Amino acid sequence: WSGRVRRGTCPRCLAGGRLRLGRALTELGKYKQAVDVLGEALEVLGGIDWLSAQVFARRARAYLGAGQVGEARQDAETALAMTRQFENRAGEGEAHLSLALVLAASEPPDYAAAEQEFVEAEQCLRECEYRLELAPALRLHGEMRLKTGYAAGAEPRLREARTLYANMGREREVAGGGGGARLLPGGGAGDLEADGSGRVRGVAARIRGGCRHLTSGRDVRNNERERSVAAPIGRRTCGPEEALSFAETRRIDRGVAEAFDP
After folding, report:
1. Which neighbouring-strand residues pair with 242?
2. How many helices (H) and strands (E) in the chain?
3. Is the pTM of this model over 0.70?
4. Is the dihedral of CA 47, 42, 105, 179 positive or negative?
């Protein structure tokens, strides 16, 4: 892939486009395709880079959706180490959330370790006011607590997640259940389902966990104000909270495709 990049093309721009495409594919449940696309992003970057940390965190979730828990854990741990190296608190929050999802979906599940990772993720994301990632982190954390019998500790997080989604104009992604204690996005991609042993299956089977939702109309207009910007090298930062609209993502992906020869 790196050998196919046209002269003068910015590798980080290309990798950023593949990252957004990988997130969209994960959102659509095309996990194996997402893994491939995110792998291409890493190949373009060619080594340790602050953007690579974000790619590893997102590929961990794609691997998890594909049922490759071992690979997911390796990517999540790599992402966490790299975000700490570059002092990127927003990226560190994403990496902690990815690792929390992996631990909850492992066999056997390590809920105690997952609980700690969720707490760390929320701390980082609150510090940065990174609502787009904090809302699903709170929701998934609350749902895991419900499944492990800690309803009292789950409700405050579910309630806060509901408020964050509402403030972002994304109420339709939240469906109340059990007196409003259970939050389910449309299609339940972030839903935590339990089998007979109480093990969380939904995290691995249908990952959403913080990936951007593809929206239109009012949601797109709201989300255009919330772009997530990666941290510069050697600087401790959270940066403004942004997320590209679907239209913008499509333009970026077209640009990525045009930068490579068939």
Report:
1. 227
2. 11, 0
3. no
4. positive
